[in-house]
C-alpha cells in the first residue's frame, strides 16, 4: 500500500507539462517569419497612407483656391469699400498663399517621399515566385536549426506516452490484486495470475521511466546547441526588422517635416495680413465715401450764364398708349449758301448743368426739348428779330417763324418741377404769366389761320441741317436737300414730310420754306 502511494506521487510529479506558445516550441518560429511578410505589407500601406494625405493636400489646395476666387469676385462686385474692402481681400490673399503651400506639400509627398519608400521596398523585400525572398530564406534557416532538436523532442514525447501508459496499467493491476485478496471465492490460480501481472506491470513501468528519463537527458543535452542555432537565425530576423523600423522612422520624419507648415507659411505674410486688419479705419472709409458719393462731393452751383450757341435736344412722343422719350441732338449748325436766313457756322458745346436733375418731365410746363443735359441753342447776332422771336411754338407758347427757323426759347429751368422739393403750383403759374407777359407780339403767319396749307400735294421745304433718322418712322436728309412737307408742325415740334417715295417725320426747325 505504501509503495503504491509513493508511485502515485511520483507519477503526479512527472506528468509532462502541456505545450506552451513559446518561440522554442516546434513550429512557433513561424511568427518571426511572418513578421517579414508583415513588414512588406506595412511598407505598401505606408505608401498608400502618404498618397492619400497628398491627395487631401491637393484637394484642400484646390478648395482654398475656389473659395478665394468665389469671394474675391463677390468683394469686387459688392458695396464694400475703403480699408474694409482691403481687409476682405487680405483674407483671400492668405487663402491663396495657404493653397500654394498645401500644393507644395502634395508635390513633395508625391515626388520625394513616396518614390524613396518604393525604391527602398523594392530593394529590401525582393519578390520570389510565391513569397518575399527574405521570408523564404528565414523559414528554411529556422527549419534547419530546429530539425535535430525536433527529432529528440519527438522521441521524448513517445517515451513519455509509453511511461504514462505503463503507469496506468500498473495501477489497474494493483486494484485487481487488492480485490482478489478481499474476495475469498477467487481461486488460488487466479490470484497467482493477478500477482504475476502486477509484477510485469511494475517492470514495464520501470523500463518506460528509464527510457523516458534517458530521452529527456538527451534532449536537454541538445538544448544549448538548439538555442544557439535558433538565436542565430532570430538575430538575423531582428536585424532585418530593425532596418525596417529605422527606415520607417526616417520616412515618417521626412513626412512630418513636409507637413510642418510652420516653416512654410512665412511670418511676413501673416504680419501683413494682421496689419491690413489693424489698418481698417471706419472714419477714413466714411470720409472717403462722403467725398466720392455723399455730402463731400463738389457741386457746380448755378450761376448766371450768358446766352451762347450750344447743343439742344428735340424730342417727340411716340404715338400710342405708352409714351417714351426719343431725343434728337443738334450736333452741328452749318451755313447754307442757298438759305435766306443767313445763319453763320457756330461751334456747339454742352452745358455744365448737374446731371442729377436731367430727367425730362411730362408736365405741360416742362420743355420737350430737355434731354439728358440742359442744352441751349444760341442765335447769331445777325439774325433778324422775327426769326428770334418766332420759335418753338408748341413748346414755349410762341408761334413758328417762316420756314420753321428755331428762335430763342423762354427761360426754362434745368430742374424738372417734380424733382424740386420746394416746387409749388403758384410759382409755376406766376412764372408762366410772367413769361407770357414778356412774349413778343410777333406771330407766325400760320398762327392766325391755322394750317398753312390744305393741299394734299404738300409744300416744298429746304433742309437747314443734316439729320439722321433715329426711328423707323423718321426721315433722313442732308443740308440743302429739298423735299415735300405734307403736314404742319404738331404739338411736339415734328412735321410730316416726303423724301422721294418715303413718308415720315422730321424736326420742324431743321427746314425752311422754299
From TrEMBL:
Superkingdom of source: Eukaryota
Keyword Cytoplasm: yes
GO biological process, one term: plasma membrane tubulation
A GO term from the CC aspect: endosome
UniProt domain SH3: residue ranges: 456-514
Protein name stated in the entry: Protein kinase C and casein kinase substrate in neurons protein 1
SMART domains xref list: FCH, SH3
Function summary: Plays a role in endocytosis and regulates internalization of plasma membrane proteins. Overexpression impairs internalization of SLC2A1/GLUT1 and TRPV4 and increases the levels of SLC2A1/GLUT1 and TRPV4 at the cell membrane. Inhibits the TRPV4 calcium channel activity.
Listed CDD domains: F-BAR_PACSIN, SH3_PACSIN
